[in-house]
Amino acid sequence: MAEPSLALSFDDVLLTPSLSELLPSDSDVSTELCKGVPLNIPIVSAAMDTVSETDLAMALAREGGIAVIHRACTVEQQASMVAKVKRSENAVIYKPLTVSRKQTVAEVREIMGREGFSGFPVVDPNGRLEGMVTGRDLRHIPSEKALVEDVMTPMDRLVTAPADMDQRQAREILYKNRIEKLPLVNDDGTLAGLITGADIEKRITFTSASKDPNGQLRCGAAVGPGPEFLDRAKALLEAGADALFIDAATGHTSRVMEVIEKLRELGDTPVVAGNVVTAQGARDLI
Questions:
Q1: Residue where one domain finishes, among candidates 205, 223, 245
Q2: Same domain, yes or no, for 192 and 125?
Q3: What stretch of H or E contains 252?
Q4: Is it true that the peptide bond before 126 is cis, omega within 30 degrees of 0?
Q5: 208, 272, 259, 207: which is closest to 231 by C-alpha?
Q6: Which whole-number Å values give the CA distances from 268 to 34, 168, 242, in the listed order?
Q7: What is the pLDDT of residues 231-255, one digit of tens each?
Q8: Number of neighbouring beta carbons within 10 Å of residue 281
């Protein structure tokens, strides 16, 4: 009979400290979740409904990690959570939420409460900027039925900038004019994007945040091996998910391998699968 090999648990091992010349400020714990998704801290939150939703995803990404939004909800709810994380911070918001001049104050308040934003550009049906409405404009309004056009800041009083405005110049304009939002406008008057003072302050405060090339917080999302996985994956990618995680009890199954192949056909977004505990399991998934 072969002799059993040595097996150790954490309680069996004690590491004694020795002389160190390393300062905490010299430490670098950055890593890669997978190709193209760098992290500044090696922390990924579990795809559980009691753990990973919008608030945790934003907080963890600001510290340099990434959350995996759970799938214990409808496709629409999960995609909405991913989209909310991706919209929460931007170098430039290229597709800001907008309202029309004929919407009511009540409708704008409802959108503000649902989406967590304090103001919106006002555009016409062709996307031309007509003004800006913020929470400040809605204070002390006598009727919730009042129209946006009655309370918004119109174009003749609105501070705007050209579409190619850089971050340094934008910050100077925000400071000089004591404003929080700077709409970017194309030559034809259409809305090109939005820069906010809040996003600039977050970039200064959270210097280690995990962000994509567009300056948006990174966010992962889970899909299962069930029959609806493809529709869910497409919706999550449309919402901006940086990586798809196959949420299964065990990863070394023919079904998970089939799901991986289908997800790879959707594009270059990384796919994370597991759990596996053998070399063959890893080879089969790769």
A1: 205
A2: yes
A3: none
A4: no
A5: 259
A6: 12, 32, 10
A7: 999 999 999 999 999 999 999 999 9
A8: 18
